[in-house]
Amino acid sequence: MASEVASALLFYLVNGLIWGLIIALIALGLSFIFGVMGIVNMAHGDLYMLGAVFAYWIFSALGNFWLSLLIVPVAIGLLAAPTERLILRPFEGHPAVTMIATAGLSFILQQLVLMTYGGVPKELPMPLQGSFDFLGVAYPLYRLFIAALSLVIIASVWLFLHRTDYGILVRASMQDKEIASAMGINVNTVLVFTFVLGCVLAAVGGVLAAPVTQVFYLMGNDVILLCFIVVIIGGLGSLGGTLVAALVLGGVEGLLAYFLSPTGARAAVFAFMVGVLILRPQGLFGTQRG
Amino acid sequence: MAILEVREITKNFGGLTALKDVCLSVQEGELRGIIGPNGAGKTTLFNVISGDLKPTGGKVYLQGEDITGLPPHKICKKGLGRTFQLTMVFPELTVYESIWVGINSRKEKPWDPFRSFEKDSDVSERAEELCRIVGLYEKRDELASNLSYGDQKALEIAMALSTDPAVLLLDEPTQGVSPKEAEGLIELIVELSKRMTIVLIEHSVDVVLRLCHKVTVLNEGRVIAEGSPEEISRNKEVQRIYLGT
Amino acid sequence: MPRGPRSLAMQTMAFCIFAMAYDLCFGYTNQCSLGHSVFFGVGAYGVVLSLLHLQSGILLGLLIAFVAGMVVAFLMGSICVRLTEAYFVIVTALFSAIFHLLSLDMTWLTGGDDGLSVTLPDISVGGVRLSLYDPMTNYYFILVFFLASYLLMRRITEAPLGKVFISIRENEKRAAFLGYDPFRYKLAAFVLSGAFTALAGSIYALTLRYATADLFGLYWSIIPIVWCLIGGVGTLVGPCIGVALMFFFQYYVSAWWTHYLILFGVLILVILRTSRKGLLGYLLGR
């Protein structure tokens, strides 16, 4: 009896951690975009949604899920780059304004998807069948794949930022754009690149999540809520903090979902965030110049 | 008893030591000058005294009371006024309104929704008086953002005075203004020094030596000399710093 | 006055109260809250739940809603007001999202997005019985509240308190160095704003005779910003002009096209790109 409960809890916990990895991908994109250009991207959840919707369309048209992992980044990049350059550029550096502007974009994206994809939630079949047995729990292979790929992507982003020349340029721009510009860094391209990278991370998260959740035009709203909580607790602009917070919160929310309703678990996580803020208004690892 | 006392104030920013064991004792009615090369820590010292920064070590006493680490609005209420090197005005308020705001904060209920802005006579009289003292009476209905830089500097002083301080900290009050405006401001400072304690940061050593009763010299975060203007002008260390600069 | 326009006029007045209340927060103290839908919804449910479960009568119900808004704003503000700009916008938006989520979930209390309907009891005032089912009475009742709200908020902004708010908006550091605790005053503005927003929500619920969880949605957090930006921030009257200008959009476009939110999104981007101070500011030559 006890071992059944333990197995169930383990299942929920691992589920939560894997979901936490997807959230980490998305939240990293969000934190990145804020750190480099001061944009609080309210439409970030909708980019996740677009990734899932595109995955559905690609699967419907071509019968192949894996192709999405190649096509979606390109498609999102083509959408994101002009959006940053033409629409969001004047607002950068003003968090409140960018949040309102991206809220506007969010409304637009959601309605466009509603008009084309429709309002009915649809499902995608699992691209990988089978499961892996561990400690009495049968773990779906696809979910393990999600975990592995997310880790690979996160590690790649870290390596990129810390070990490549261009990555160092991006981090320099994150610290201080004026100095970076004075050092000859083409800040323009860094801005577009960063925004595209952030959006692609969210969209890829959506592609990965599509087979395990329902693809629905409002699916981004739930995700953005958790992402913002993660980013606030971890500290805006702190990539390490975001990662830690995403994993911890994913795991905690996963465990809580065993005892409470999903809404209850979400509310509990929110209450935890409030607690953190009361003690540390800049988040756990935040570097706000307050 | 000193009206303003600074004891072994140290301020570190990460690896950088901006102030180290700075001591200062200002008597009531004194006009004290603080000089030193750029980066010596003069404005940082003002920031620590006025509550803008918390010191890493040491204490600050105002009228005998420990004000170390208190927030700026509390220190202001205890009798400290301050101007800023780069003018800190309210762009969309007029000269009169800006001064009025400071006087209002001394009221028992500065937030009272039933008091009228125009009709509260003692506040409005004092505001007009301060406009006159700093020479901005004719421009009292001008928006602060429309004033010339020299007038903004005068407004800075008026705002610092509006809270009726016992000690006034002036951070480079004549920096960036024309010589004529500077003379006007200096006359104002001399007048004010007859009625209150003033601590003055000035880049122009001549002005400080001319006006001040006592001078403190800072270099690289430390007090390197203190004394009367004559003593300071004869001090070899001070000369070396200024000639070397 | 014929029926249709009168009902719209009443809703417009409720929105004007909301817009002016938001201006206290956004225009007068520069706090860009994205959480005001919380107060709007609390106000609506405050009066509806009071009528349904407490049999409180309309006037008491409105008072309960107002006080509830004040309390929620105080709790929320105590956490949010001290946060820096980016965090403030995000956390207020998170409060809005959580309230929306919880209200959709707790259908036993809120009726979810189907909402709760209520029948309005008669009001007894000084021996006179008034029924809000009489169109003229309803209209004048709302008008009284609208005018009272306007006069109260005008009094606050023209009194010393208003000038202190403006000084904190114009240069918070300078205001602190003149002896004002910025946190206290910003919190005060936030609480007043929340209380009057709750009043607006409760009036709106009275005109519709119902409250729904949708009132906690993001749209109701964003729309007051649009009203203020179109009409003129920091002027109290300006946001009312914004309500009037958006009136066409809210009633006709939303009824005619289900996907009107696309236009709304485009409108937001256009407004943000153009005038920052709004129409009234432009006319006053600022």
Task: Give an account of the 3D structure.
The complex is a heterotrimer of chains A (290), B (245) and C (286). Chain A is built from eleven helices and two strands. Chain A is mainly α and 290 residues long. The radius of gyration of chain A is 19 Å and the shape is globular. In chain A, a hairpin with a 2-residue loop joins β1 (131-134) and β2 (137-140). With 245 residues, chain B is an alpha/beta fold. Chain B has one domain (4-244): P-loop containing nucleotide triphosphate hydrolases (Rossmann fold, 3-Layer(aba) Sandwich), CATH 3.40.50. Chain B contains nine helices and ten strands. A six-stranded mixed β-sheet of chain B has the order 6-7-8-3-9-10, sandwiched between helices. A four-stranded antiparallel β-sheet of chain B has the order 2-1-4-5, with helices on one face. In chain B, β1 (4-13) and β2 form a beta hairpin. Chain B is globular. The mean pLDDT of chain B is 89. Chain C starts with a helix and ends with a helix. Chain C is built from 13 helices and four strands. Chain C is mainly alpha-helical. In chain C, the strands form two sheets. A two-stranded antiparallel ribbon of chain C has the order 1-4. Chain C has one domain (3-217). Chain C has helices at 3-26, 36-54, 58-80, 85-105, 107-110, 135-158, 160-170, 172-177, 182-208, 218-231, 237-256, 260-273, 279-283; strands at residues 116-117, 123-125, 128-130, 210-211. In chain C, β2 and β3 (128-130) form a beta hairpin. At the A-C interface, α4, α9 and α11 of A face α4, α10 and α12 of C.
